[in-house]
Amino acid sequence: MQKRLLLLLLFLTACAPSPAPVDVDTTPQLLSIYIAPSAETWIPLIYSCADRAQIGLVSRTPDIAAADISLRIGATRKTAYQIGEVELVIVGNAANPVEGLSQTQIEAIYAGRIHNWAEIGGEDAEINLWVYGQDDDLQLAFNKIMLESSILSSMARQAQTQAVMREEIAKDAYALGIITQAQADADLRILYSLGSFPVLAIPQEEPQGNIFSLLSCLQGR
Predict the structure, then answer these.
(1) 198: part of which helix (H) or strand (E)?
(2) Residue 209 covered by a domain
(3) Is 3 inside any structural domain?
(4) Does 97 share its domain with 76?
(5) Does residue 170 fall inside a structural domain?
(6) How far is CA 87 from the centre of its chain?
């Protein structure tokens, strides 16, 4: 059976049917796209689809309000189209003897109630905790699942990107942080999985023409 394109995911609201193709001008044009830092691995796919669909040029913008399409990770109240998924994991340095953590332990660490690795079966050393900015998609997903009403520890250090967090944890035996499973390597040890989260393409308006073509390509790759 032919794979259905553009399966509409409308999070936190009732589901609505996928939009039907409409007869509109698809003359090549410039499309602006906001890509969250956590979704940057999808950049090659964006440009590949723009080329294959012959929709014109794609330009990244840091202004989400001005973007024709936004690429985000996690739930949204807006109409959104899933183009993939990522697994979010808690990682430590591979040299750290701690081989795994429970949800309760992670909650206590990030809320600032556990500070030392010795409290969770490790060496007598401070836990060097890493987080993202409060508006980062990965941090929002983590907070929703793990912290609930708790307040994030004020002792946590902030990484601007996954690459920075991965590098910091890889060189520090006592560091702990949050990345996607695909970013883990031999220098890191996965200590807990938070599960899978959707990668979403969110159009500013009802998708038509070139935007519809791009979304169709992203879902039908």
Answers:
(1) strand 188-203
(2) yes
(3) no
(4) no
(5) yes
(6) 9
The tens digit of pLDDT for each residue in 158-214 reads 999 999 999 999 999 999 999 999 999 999 999 999 999 999 999 998 888 888 888
Q: Which residues contact 216 (CB under 8 A, 6 or more apart)?
A: 5, 6, 53
pLDDT in tens, 155-166: 899 999 999 999
Quick one: which H or E segment has residue 219?
A: helix 209-219
Q: Which residues, given as ranges, of the chain have pLDDT below 70?
A: 1-28, 149, 221
CATH number at residue 74: 3.40.190.10
CA distance 201 to 196: 16
Torsion, CA 63, CA 68, CA 71, CA 76, rounded to 10: 90
Number of neighbouring beta carbons within 10 Å of residue 135: 8
Q: Which residues of 180-197 are buried (b: 16+ CB within 10 A; e: fewer)?
A: beebbeeebbbbbebeeb
Rounded distance, CA 14 to CA 10, Å?
7
